[in-house]
Amino acid sequence: MAFRKFLPLFDRVLVERFTAETVTKGGIMLPEKSQGKVLQATVVAVGPGTVTKKGDMQPVGVKVGEKVLLPEYGGTKIVLEDKDYFLFRDGDILGKYIE
């Protein structure tokens, strides 16, 4: 797997966005322009965390496999083995879904 070869540094989180819905519940096909930006993603890799001013390690707030809510803008797009991933700071992630 591509993300096993990539380890984010510090408080960075590598996520894979969910795919946008292309068909409505009624069966109507949606063009790409009318599809909203998908703000949900799955965490695929996390960095070790950041070092505080006292020298303690502050771990990242999410774990691999969790589903998170992303901001509408931001993140760095990364292509690994022809798949799009996004790199966010831990503080930029808005929340996580609890199942």
Automatic annotation (TrEMBL):
SMART domains reported for this sequence: Cpn10
Kinase listed as a keyword: no
UniProt keyword list: Chaperone, Stress response
Keyword Nucleus carried by entry: no
GO MF, one example: protein folding chaperone
GO cellular component: mitochondrial matrix
Cross-referenced InterPro entries: Chaperonin_GroES, Chaperonin_GroES_sf, Chaprnonin_Cpn10_CS, GroES-like_sf
Role description: Co-chaperonin implicated in mitochondrial protein import and macromolecular assembly. Together with Hsp60, facilitates the correct folding of imported proteins. May also prevent misfolding and promote the refolding and proper assembly of unfolded polypeptides generated under stress conditions in the mitochondrial matrix. The functional units of these chaperonins consist of heptameric rings of the large subunit Hsp60, which function as a back-to-back double ring.
HAMAP family: CH10 (MF_00580)
Annotated family: Belongs to the GroES chaperonin family.
Database matches in PANTHER family: 10 KDA HEAT SHOCK PROTEIN, 10 KDA HEAT SHOCK PROTEIN, MITOCHONDRIAL
Assembly description: Homoheptamer arranged in a ring structure. 2 heptameric Hsp10 rings interact with a Hsp60 tetradecamer in the structure of a back-to-back double heptameric ring to form the symmetrical football complex.
UniProt-recorded name of the protein: 10 kDa heat shock protein, mitochondrial
Species of origin: Monopterus albus (Swamp eel)
